[in-house]
Amino acid sequence: MKFFLLCATLLAAVVSRAATPTEVRVRDAAEFRAALSAAKPGTRLLLAGGAYGGGFQRANLRGEPGRPIVIAAADPQNPPVFSNAKTGLHLSNPVHVELHGLVFEKLSDNGLNIDDGGVFAEGDAGAHHVVLRGLVARDVGTTGNQDGIKLSGLRDFRIESCTIERWGTGGGSAIDMVGCHRGVVIDCVIRHREPGPPNCTGVQCKGGTSEVAILRNRFEHAGGRAVNIGGSTGRPFFRPPIAAGAAPGTYAEARAIRVEGNTFVGGMATMGFVGVDGAVVRFNTIERPGRWALRILQENRAPDFIACRGGVFADNVIVFESAAWASGGVNLGPGTAPETFSFARNWWWCRDRPDRSRPTLPTSEVDGVYGRDPVAAKSLAGAAAWREK
User: Fold this and answer.
1) Which residues contact 16 (CB under 8 A, 6 or more apart)?
2) Torsion angle, alpha carbons of 159, 161, 165, 167, to 10
């Protein structure tokens, strides 16, 4: 009996030790490279503040449920800074990984790059369950297609309380998602230089991306499209991959995207619905867009792709000026299905010409409000209450 009790005690001790996170203190780039290479499920890498350079890579960094691998600032007030390289950190095929309080700046390509290694897979394979919390990415790229945070083929992820400032102005995005699924972008600040470069985007969901919620973020002068729901993606980069010989209307650049409770200031267009099959945009505050509140476009014209359809634009407050308002606030491109879009309960206010507040919509709006000052009418109360939930 004593023998069995001893065995049970030893087994319990082994299980307890296995479940306890292993904390590794990192002081410089060399120690980080070694610790990143050796990290196991449950490892917590705590990085001292200071300059780490960049170019770090790790494939198959795989934690476990309840035992993620965490890479974090030891002191959030004195964060580690990844800079002066092409990319700060590139994780390929990570699972159950969390990044907290890191800074990426002055990088020529992408600040942070996370992908599936080119092999998209469901189940336990592939890249999934990644948390990015309290990151800063700023001054990434120049005039090209460079992103603050680039995600490809990632599933079940969360981007929370991050700040992305100034990224590539020639097609770059603050957060670029290609073939990503079941994610949340919440409570982030995304800003570029005023008035906002026309050839970049704030948050982009394309390449088959689905079931992503963009919630309670602040966008300031975030480019030609502050949120690009869909886009134009080369066929080899879709996740899941595109099958040969698919029937017409099989594929979409994005599906089931929600954009709710955000604040948008400036930029050329607040929202782009681009080759998307179903998206909901509601409870947002839109202030001074440069040309349009939204655009309905089709950039991928292959026959096996649907025409952009099924968007919902409801319960938003749009404040604009007559000199910066084109096509009645809505840009319709060829090859789309604007008749499938619905509009309801939006509050439209042209603050210098209230008589010009009514937008030009492709379908009739239900219970829209036009030409009344939303602040005076306290119309923001509903959206504010929603954000506080």
Assistant:
1) none
2) 0
Residues pairing with 157 in the sheet: 130, 183
The domain locations on the chain are 169-387
**Distance (Å, rounded) from C-alpha 16 to C-alpha 42?**
12
> What whole-number distance in Å separates Cα of residue 380 and Cα of residue 21?
45
DSSP 8-state class, residue 288: -
Q: Rounded distance, CA 261 to CA 258, Å?
A: 10
> CB within 8 A of 239, min separation 6: which ones?
116, 120, 152, 153, 178, 179, 180, 181, 207, 208
Any idea what DSSP says for residue 305? Answer: B
Task: Enumerate the β-bridge partners of residue 241.
Answer: none
With a CB cutoff of 8 Å and minimum separation 6, the contacts of 85 are 53, 54, 55, 107, 108
Residues β-bridged to residue 308? none
Asked whether 350 and 358 are in contact (CB, 8 A), the reply is no
Q: Which of 110-114, 120-124, 216-220, 336-340 has the lowest mean pLDDT?
A: 120-124
d(CA 126, CA 117): 8
Is the model's pLDDT at 2 over the cut of 50? no
- Is a pLDDT exceeding 50 seen at residue 384? no
Q: How far is CA 33 from CA 24, 37, 43, 58, 258, in A?
A: 12, 6, 14, 9, 38
Q: Give the 3-state secondary structure of residue 158.
A: strand
Give the integer Cα–Cα distance in Å for 173 and 107.
14
